[in-house]
Fold each of these.
Amino acid sequence: MTRLNLLLLAAVVACALGVITSQDRARRLFADIDAEREAAKRLDEEWTQLQLEQATWATHKRVEDVASRQLGMRLAGPDTTVIIDPAGVPVARAPERP
Amino acid sequence: MKYEERTPQLRLKLEGWRSRFVLVLAMAGFAVLAGRAFYLQGVDTGFLQAKGEARYGRVVEMPASRGTVRDRNGKPLAISTPVESIWADPDDLEADAREVASLARALGASPGEIRQKFASKDRQFVYLRRQISPDRAAKVMALRIPGVFEQREYRRYYPDGDLTAHVVGFTDVDDNGQEGIELAEQSRLAGTPGSRKVIRDRRGRIVDDMESLRPPRDGEEVDLAIDERLQFLAHRELKAAVARHHAKGGSLVILDARTGEILALVSMPDYNPNNRTGLTPAQVRNRSVTDLFEPGSTMKPFTIAAALDDGVVEPDTEIETAPGHMTIGGWTISDSHPNGLLTVSQVIQKSSNIGAAKIMLRMPRERMGTLLHDLGFGSAPRTGFPGEAKGLVKPWTEWRPIEQATISYGQGISVSLLQIARAYTIFTNDGRLLPLSLLKRDTRPIGKPIITPRAAREVTRMMESVVMPGGTAPLARVPGYRVAGKTGTALKPENGRYAEGKYVSSFVGFGPVSDPRFIVAVMLDEPEGTRNFGGDVGAPVFASVMGAALRLMSIAPDAPQTLEVKGAEPGAVEARAAAPGGAG
């Protein structure tokens, strides 16, 4: 009887230690996943900042400014555009020259 | 001798019940404790658990971000990014003069200003600086001054600045929409912050979730119908026109002629939503939506359409407009240029007030009154935009003959630019009026039939002649495309009468005529100078916006023969066209 009790006591202690270990592991893992979640949120926020930055750099006003001032480009007007049909034949004729 | 015998006191015999009484008392005490313990552990379990949780559990706020506003191609027009607000608890604060100085430097404020904020001892919360970048906040927190805290907030940025200011609007410092879409779609855009209960270990790490009290919900994204590229074109051209004519203001609307979506909505003067110091209400107003004006001749196509539908006139019916003025009930109306005998088509082409009035007076009052109502004049366009103007239309039962006559050419009625642009959808959709939308549409609405397809076609043909030589707006012509439109020049009513020399010039048109894609409506308020007719002021803006929009969207020209190819020999054109990628 005493021996059985001791055996059961040992089993209970072992189980209790097991619970402690797995609880600790669960908490470590949870801390990890929480850190990852934080990281995901930080990346999300960084992404919105990058989106904002991209949108700011890519505004039409700036693109037009860079194209016309720095690169000396200009918009192709109707006088420099040739319209062709799907077969490649120009549909817009040049006016007769005098 | 025994001890007891030597001490007589011990020989006293106590009565037996006394020791039993003490024993029972002690036992009863234990029983009460056991009962209480049993009650706490077994019956009222919540109390101790709550006390325990309070030792290690913490409620953590989970902030939610506001939704992004995007244009129809997914480009962000309003976006929230995290910022930090620095606040202090003056009660807890411990800072010497040196620390205050370095704190002030980090915050970009004067030490006096900071000290003043610290002086308010009766308060437990005072903002030192709101909404600074996370980098700067980190520098402030690195000073480790007790009683100074940071708080995560979101700030709204508008990458396009003044470009979409009137459409998107803005939020206040607490992230509530104040104007435009930010206000109209507040409930969708706003996020709901959540909270959860967690267990923290001694290093402050969260080690376990106890319960999620309220999950955070980020705001939804809102996709507008606005096309940022068209908005840019419209903004650039309108701004240039307002400056060129020294106008008090102006507005421009581009509609998708097939779906009723609002592709661009520009208003002048404008403002930068990212820096709103010194903002006046006049700048904030979205004039296309909230401002009323007498439209003038841009109303004539509706008069003619009604008359064609009723069989009152045919396109080639002749109307006598000589001598250029006419008296109705003691009031005189006149044309800007006397015209003589005109066909109905020419009434539109030359924009004759007399002609429109005479055609109008052949119809019963009720006809035009009902048409105006059906076209949406006098009721809000219901785009969801805050502060939509309804317009002023007198009930037709109260029209006197002179009023009926002037309404035929758009005087004596007030509309918003958005309303008139919408009414023109009947000409691009076989007589059906489309509902407007500021939000992107997935399906094409069918629309409500207002006039017959035949009348829509005939009036379109007449409006095409407006931009031809001999019409009132040859400047509205777009090379390569067939466009149609109508000028409007209206006197501004002031204090119940028309102000001399103050005009509103407008142009409403659409193109390409063979398969309309865009409706462009432009309005300038009080342009200066002698040439202030819609054909000189509004038409060039229409032409440049419409031309650029059609080219931008790669819409095939339906009148390529009108393109002037300068400096290119016919052979050279073919050679270039044949070269791969040569014609781009």
Note: Chain A has one domain: 2-73.
Amino acid sequence: MKPAAFEYHAPRTIGEAVRLLAAHGDDAKVLAGGQSLVPLMNMRLARPRVIVDLNRVRGLDGLREARGVLKIGAMVRQRVAERSPLVASRCPLLRDALGCVGHPQIRNRGTIGGSVAHADPAAEIPAVLAALGGEVTVRGPKGARTIRAADLFVTYLTTAIDARELLTEVRVPVQPRGAGWSWMEIARRHGDFALAGVGVMLALRRGVIAEARIALTGVGPAPVRANAAERLLTGSRPSDAVWQDAAEAVRGAIDPDGDLHASAEYRRHVAGVLTVRALREALGRAGAPGSGGRGRPRREAA
Amino acid sequence: MAPRDVAVTINGRAYHGRVEPRKTLADFIREDCGLTGTHLGCEHGVCGACTILMDGDAVRSCLLFAVQADGAELRTVEGLADGDRLHPIQQAFWEHHGLQCGFCTPGFLMTSVAFLREHPHPTEREIREGLAGNLCRCTGYQNIVKAVAAAADMLTSTAPASDSGRRVAKKGARARRRTPEHPPRRRRRRIAR
């Protein structure tokens, strides 16, 4: 349980980090919070020849709002974002989802950018990004480029980010004023990766759903945006019948794998149940002024 | 790979070492600093036995490399007691039989220190959630939960001491960062709120 030897670099600037990645390419791994990479290294499932540690890089820890978008530096710790009043008021869905990421000890080190770049198929932050239509900035030898969430998550632990590129910023549109939201997931134990999870955002206008966002985690190789369910909800009046229709659409849109912890049928079933619960909770929160109230993330043992 | 110099403060005392980059902080604390109170269970971030405080935050020391901690202020289980006087959380674990074999205890204690600072009046559910990242194979958690609840009472009924949660509860995280025990980190201060 000791990592294999590696060449260690602790750059101080983004430019230096990008140059190191350009020089070492596939041989290098970026070390952010280390809460996924270091376990893999300790078990020698990962044996990177070069480690580029971002923890001393300046300029990756900003957390601010600009023109309706929450801009989160790649190295912002999950726990910092979770407790940020800005995140709570502008993007409570992200705040609630963060409460379900591992344990406090994990979130004290784990970063927003690291979670996105690692792209675990059962992770929370990628699903929030997918639901709200976020995007990331990556920097490489040829400069910076933007990747939208829809194009970012390719499959298990795989993103559209090249080995020579560095994720520098995660951007999430702020939730519309008065929009309701809900994050729900089922895990075997508190802090475990979700067997299935769903993030919902609902905006109503005169009693009709004006905008619906639904994305799921843990039910496929990458986060799933439930487009069909969103279309079905938009323009409808909230009702249990509509929620059930949306849940059916979600079940039809996912193709979960079964494993030791939960069968594919169970995951599909639970995804629908969670969708209904999340829609109900989001509706209950919609319209409330200052939708960044101190709600608690919902998490239940299977 | 080329060894590197590491300088940390542990429980207020300075330690220096020269280590390979692959050496974990947990191994550095145990082997190079001789502080074997920090235990290693799973060595991949699941069991929580190696939990320490790094610049005031509870972290798993098996998931950090020692080189990353260069310049950091650490607190381990050895830093809890004041001479022969146990820390209130240690006292509560003792009184409520919160340990059996004791292997997981250092991790539980350090997790509890950080947890009670943020939750001075926790509910049982909050305690169970707060401790969910630590595994015990002996007691079945019941007495650990009782001990943490009792420790919360002890800490909030005593005068503002270094670990009193009451003061933190009133002023929030900002106040905590200013206490001498938890010096501000530049990284944190730059974050706009």
Note: Helices of chain B lie at 25-32, 88-95, 105-118, 124-130, 142-157, 165-178, 186-189.
